[in-house]
Design goal:
The chain is an all-alpha fold and 318 residues long. It has 14 helices and no strands. The protein has a single domain, classed as Na+/H+ antiporter like fold, CATH 1.20.1530. Helix 5 runs antiparallel to helix 6 and helix 7 runs antiparallel to helix 8. The termini are far apart. Keywords: Antiport, Ion transport, Membrane, Sodium, Sodium transport, Transmembrane, Transmembrane helix, Transport.
Length: 318
């Protein structure tokens, strides 16, 4: 239990420091796990209790995401958001497997990488939109709608992939994130939806999310990544270019002007929590190894750090 309490304390602290520095709280919590885990201090370990609590964290995170999904807004901008989501998924799903295969990875790992980087982080984009007072703008609504569709596609893809291709065979933990997301969407229609969201999100933010994001960092071994630096840099560039380019193309196809299309492209770049959930599903389903998971996590971290830098000037012009 002391192991868990120490993990929660350190990840909460790092998360708040990250926010003060203008970064994502998720990034701070991930870095906390890396610092106290096997890479550096090695004082917190990934025990069975940590694993169980992190699984609960994934469930609550996906439930909250479903509760926060506004179906009315999605219907209003369904054409634009669907095209943006589809193109924003299609290009990473094609480009990443090709790049991974060229770098010598197995076919299953390469295909899985495409699913990981097809996801979009809603929370990072929300924070920048709110900061620039663009949440209620047309572009803001389209980005959020597209990100939700994006994540539904990614969750469906990783669920099917891990069940039918994962080395562990059928694994109920692979289905739980999708089940939680769907439950959240249905609960959204109830009169107590806001109260449920407030309560689950509070418990998540102060207990379960820090354990989940911190536990991911615990298993990252920086020492094993020395010979992968070039590959990681290339994947970071690919993560930014494919999502920006795919979403920009989708926005242009839907009839939006170039300024709005570029802002939408930037708004879809961040991977954050959804990509981390998908990575964790791949790890638990034995689709990827801990070493590959560490590589993916570093790419996710850097793409999430770069995303707000791209978003802020482009959002200012819409």
């Amino acid at each position: 239990m002391m192991n868990v309490l120490l993990l929660i304390t350190v990840t909460l602290f790092f998360g708040k420091v990250a926010v003060k520095l203008g970064l994502s709280e998720v990034i701070g919590q991930l870095l906390a796990g890396i610092v106290v885990g096997m890479s550096f201090l090695n004082i917190v370990h990934s025990t069975n209790l940590v694993h169980v609590l992190s699984e609960i964290g994934i469930f609550i995170l996906m439930l909250s995401s479903g509760l926060a999904s506004d179906m009315k807004t999605m219907k209003k901008y369904i054409k634009a958001s669907s095209l943006i989501a589809i193109m924003g998924v299609a290009i990473p799903v094609i480009a990443f497997p090709a790049a991974f295969i060229l770098m010598g990875y197995s076919v299953s790992v390469s295909l899985f990488s495409g699913i990981v980087f097809s996801a979009t982080s809603i929370s990072i984009t929300l924070a920048v939109l709110a900061e620039q007072k663009k949440l209620t703008s047309v572009v803001g609504a389209i980005i959020l709608s597209a990100a939700i569709i994006d994540d539904v596609i990614s969750l469906l893809a990783v669920t099917l992939f891990s069940v039918f291709i994962g080395n562990g065979g059928f694994n109920i933990s692979s289905l739980l994130p999708l089940i939680a997301f769907v439950i959240g969407i249905f609960l959204r229609k109830t009169a107590i939806a806001d109260q449920i969201f407030e309560n689950t999100n509070w418990v998540g933010q102060w207990i379960f999310y820090p354990i989940f994001f911190g536990s991911i960092g615990l298993n990252v071994s920086i020492g094993q990544l020395n010979n992968k630096i070039l590959a990681i840099v290339l994947f970071i560039l690919l993560a930014i270019i494919t999502k920006f380019g795919g979403s920009w193309i989708g926005a242009k196809m839907s009839g939006l002007n170039n300024t709005a299309s570029k802002a939408i492209g930037a708004g879809m770049v961040s991977r954050g929590e959804m990509a981390l959930v998908i990575t964790q599903i791949g790890l638990s389903s034995q689709v990827i190894s801990a070493a590959v998971s560490g590589e993916l996590i570093l790419v996710i971290i850097f793409s999430t750090l770069i995303a707000p830098i791209l978003m802020k000037p482009l959002f200012a012009n819409i």
